[in-house]
Amino acid sequence: MAVRRQPRAGWVALAAGLLALAAAARLSPTWHPPLFDGIVVEDPYKYLEPPPGKPGNATSVSDTLALDQGVSPQLYSGTLENPPQAQMIADRDAFQLPSGTTSIKASIAPIKPPAPVTDGRISGNVYEFKVANQAGTDLALVPGTTITIVLRAPNGVTNGTIVHFNGTTWDKVPTDNGGLPDLYATNATQLGDYAVLVTGAQTPEPSFLTPVPLSSPSPTPTPSSGGGPTPWLVIGLVAAAILVGVLWRTLGDREP
Fold it and tell me: How far apart, in whole angstroms, are the C-alpha atoms of residue 166 and residue 188?
């Protein structure tokens, strides 16, 4: 019956269409495999007080967040550069909340150094990290809880250590790599003023955009110089043709 043949025709048309699309895409002169997106292009570092020839206008950020069922919410805050020059990350219920707290305000701002360092030099900006409630009361972390502080040093500075100002002097804190060569992270037990300290010879600081490879991308294959289709295309076309034949026979056998 003609009605029973329509599904078979539909399957065959679909398979043939997919076959044609695959062949057209593979034979196109502009075809190439997907590129591995493994390069981060860093903006030039922005200074609060820029040295000669360096960009200024370092950004700050302020985020207001509602409570999460009566406790402080999960928090992420970061400045507006790419990648951010300062970030802080906290888990839910990380802060002690005074009675009457309805929201919290997290802020990060570049500031002038409150005091000089006694060993080495500060690379980049000093940043003040604050979390307060809606009344402006500074919040402390719940005992045993930490907040992750991430600082970016100027482009190419890879020998830094995070320091924290204790009100009188600067203290070095345990420092880990933050994901890029010039990103530094620490799990801090208090907020306040943080910076990147460099001792010894400072690595070069290029003034241009710096591409940072996250990992080595796979080499991109070039089209074959031969005149015919590649062996893989031939194999794919043969497999598709076999599939069309199997569908035709299977669906045809079901007809009365």
Answer: 12
Q: What percent of the chain is predicted at pLDDT more than 90?
A: 57
When mean pLDDT is compared across 8-22, 85-99, 154-168, the lowest value belongs to 8-22
Boundaries of domain holding 123: 39-213
Are residue 115 and residue 184 in the same domain, yes or no? yes
Q: Are 24 and 45 part of one and the same domain?
A: no
CA distances from 149 to 31, 85, 143 (A): 44, 11, 17
SS3 state at 146: coil
Condensed to tens digits (0 to 9), the pLDDT of residues 128-139 reads: 999 999 999 999
Residues 46 and 26 in one domain: no
User: Beta strands of the chain (E only): which ranges?
Assistant: 39-42, 61-66, 75-78, 86-90, 103-111, 121-122, 126-133, 147-152, 160-165, 170-172, 176-177, 183-188, 192-198, 210-213
Per-residue pLDDT tens over the stretch 48-58: 999 999 999 99
Q: How would you classify residue 100: left for phi > 0, otherwise alpha for psi between -120 and 50, otherwise beta?
A: left
